[in-house]
Amino acid sequence: MSGSGTTLVEAQRLGRRAIGCDIDPLARLIAAVKLTPVPPNEALQSGRAALERARSDYGTRRKDLAGELRSRFDGKTRDFLDYWFQRDRQLELLALLRHIEGVENQPVRQFLQVAVSSTIIAKSGGVSLARDLAHTRPHRVLDKVTPSAFMAFEKRLKANAVPGCAPSSTVRTEVLAASASDTGLSPASVDLVVTSPPYANNAIDYMRAHKFSLVWLGWNLDALADIRKTYLGHDALAPELSTSLPDLCETTLARLAELDARKAQVLRRYFCEMSEVLAEMHRVLRSGGSAIVVVGTSTLRGMDVETHKALETIAGGLGFVPAGIGVRRLDRDKRMMPARWGGPRQSQIEHRMHEEYVIGLVKP
User: Fold this and answer.
1) Helix or strand or coil: residue 56?
2) Residues contacting 41, CB < 8 A, separation 6+
């Protein structure tokens, strides 16, 4: 659960070898770009060359581009693009990405792909018809005035191609396509784990937004749906859950079941999956190593399930020694979160998403 790589970047800046694991393709791409220094002049030169060729194709080869739109995507993905993107924006994005795909230098190519992605996933000014896409709560606005993908890309290219945009270090840093519950790392090989798992009950559905970019980067909707089903905190029910949970968790689940049996099953899945993740942390940590888990709680049917207490208790049963739980207050004005701006200011979702808990764990 390394996300977009902030912890990896900080580790690299400190000269520490870092390994990140994530199943989200866009998160891994962004992290790889953050971690790989790309000379600004090289990024600008390659990006502007791709942009110039794309503009030429858009002006003189629109028929060819339209044909490629039909052949490049399967039917379901094609319908998705038609629903969320105006025709001109589709042609612009395709023209641009065709030439970016031809960039031989992988770090530069990935840098440019992330720049394109940032023109799509934005608060409100993205090139799709979606609003609130950056908050993972997209809804279509047919009268939205969308910017040219060419102009948006040029703007992002200039903003991103700055000196020092990635740390320069000889320390090896990796981003693995692996689950946090099955990293593939050797036992007792890690000194410190730092992670922030998702909310229970899929409160923030990252794939709902990320697919808007990923379909342009070669993924189809069915493949992305399969990945989404494996997300921690997914709201689908698991048919069989054999993991034994502590009494504290069982008491919480029993109370929630009285209010909503289905949500209790979803929460059980979350606790069981997090038990597997914590067990994997314990496996890969050396004796004396520590884990820092930053988590938000969840309010389900008006009930605070106190996720932080549940995870600390689960970890204790797996052999960790809890070092304590800290509370971190979050500034509502600096968060890219689906918090509500109208209505009661102290709503459950606002309170939950502006407070986090930092769990400290030590492997004896």
Assistant:
1) helix
2) none
DSSP states of 99-166: HHTT---HHHHHHHHHHHHHHHS-SS-SSSSEESTTTT--EE-TT--PPPHHHHHHHHHHHH--TTSS
The Cα-based distances of 53 to 47, 73, 102, 269 in angstroms read: 10, 22, 11, 49
pLDDT of residue 345 exceeding 70: no
Q: Summarize pLDDT for 118-152 with one digit per residue, the tens.
A: 999 987 779 999 987 866 678 899 999 999 999 99
pTM, entire model: 0.88
Q: What span, in angstroms and rounded, lies between the C-alpha atoms of 209 and 211? A: 6
Task: List Cβ neighbours of 83 (8 Å cut-off, separation of 6 or more).
Answer: 140
DSSP E strands, the chain:
18-21, 130-131, 139-140, 173-176, 190-195, 285-295, 299-300, 303-304, 321-329, 355-362
- Phi, psi values for residue 149, rounded to 5°: -60, -30
Listed in sequence order, the residues at least 6 apart from 199 whose beta carbon sits closer than 8 Å to its beta carbon are 233, 296, 298, 307, 352
Residues 243 and 291: their CA atoms lie apart, in Å, by 21
Domain locations along the chain: 7-160, 180-197+232-362
- Which pLDDT does position 236 carry in this prediction? 61
Dist CA 94 CA 215 (whole Å): 11
**How far apart are alpha carbons 101 and 85 in whole angstroms?**
21
Q: Check pLDDT > 70 for residue 364.
A: yes
Q: Could you give the angle at which helices 6-13 and 25-35 cross, rounded to 10 degrees? A: 20
